[in-house]
Amino acid sequence: MRIDVITIFPEYLEPLNVSLVGKARARGQLDVRVHNLRDWTHDRHNTVDDSPFGGGPGMVMKPEPWGEALDAVTAEAEEGERRPVLVVPTPSGLPFTQELAVELSERPWLVFTPARYEGIDRRVIEEYGDRFDVREVSIGDYVLAGGEAPVLVIVEAVARLLPGVLGNAESHRDDSFAPGAMADLLEGPVYTKPPVWREREVPEVLLSGHHGKVARFRRDEAFRRTTANRPDLIERCDPAALDKADRALLAELGWEELPDGRFGRSASAVEE
Ligand code: ADE
């Protein structure tokens, strides 16, 4: 996969040399190129921003440097296979989810345009929306000073899904939010040696070697954690994915089975 990042703070992307992403680059699985937006300015001050039309606070990133940068960086783009996805981090974008990470991991080329200030002149997004697939993406309901940290987040989430990047091909099967058996449940707690630490014992069932019981324990713990931290995921849970033991546990945790088989928080649970 090829990844281009155009930014006024190339040094902010240094962490892409470290750990999982850094190793994937060293192995040639990821071709990451970081570009300085100011290389495509032509004035003495390398200006990239200006005041907003219509007034208001803050500054807006000028379209000309972005246009020149994107033209240069994507000069080799062809229709079809090599068509890049333009990923624009913005708090006004679609929520970044595991599903979107999977979608992006299946594309050969991602181009990131992290902005500072109040964002990029809208015409840039329109211009490239006609040529590339554009995804405006928010990593959460909070406002950061710029899109560079979101780029680090998105690249890491995508890179670990690429074939051969994670050591153990199984290790994302049970991820929270991974499609499949544990769909839409948060992962439960994990333990390793020693079996007793500061008088705290690892749950006995995990030492039993009984695969069925271990799987049930993990699923119960996933339900406990999900009901506590993300009740919205339980409410959206496909009833067909719930077995008898799941239903019994949810009832025990104060959830009510609705006529369509889904679960809702009982009135008393919502008040708490
Ligand atoms: N830029 C500033 N805040 C952001 C957020 N929450 N997600 C993506 N890009 C951003």
Strand order of the largest sheet: 2-1-6-5-7
Straight-line N-to-C gap? 48 Å
Shape: elongated
Give the DSSP E fraction (strand runs of 2 or more residues): 15-25%
Named once each, the bound ligands are: adenine
- How many distinct domains? 2
Q: Could you tell me the radius of gyration in angstroms?
A: 23 Å
Describe this protein's structure:
By secondary structure, the protein is of the alpha/beta class. The protein folds into two domains: 2-159, SPOUT methyltransferase, trefoil knot domain (Alpha/beta knot), CATH 3.40.1280.10; 181-271, Orthogonal Bundle (Trp Operon Repressor, Chain A), CATH 1.10.1270. 31% of the residues lie in helices and 17% in strands. The chain has nine helices and eleven strands. The chain has helices spanning 19-26, 63-73, 98-105, 122-129, 148-159, 211-229, 231-235, 244-252, 267-271, and strands at 2-7, 31-36, 49-50, 60-61, 85-95, 109-112, 133-138, 196-197, 200-201, 255-257, 263-265. The strands form four sheets. Strands 2-1-6-5-7 form a five-stranded parallel β-sheet. Helix 3 packs across helix 5 (148-159). The protein starts with a strand and ends with a helix. The model has no long low-confidence stretch (mean pLDDT 93). The site of adenine has 11 residues, from strand 5. Adenine binds next to strand 5.
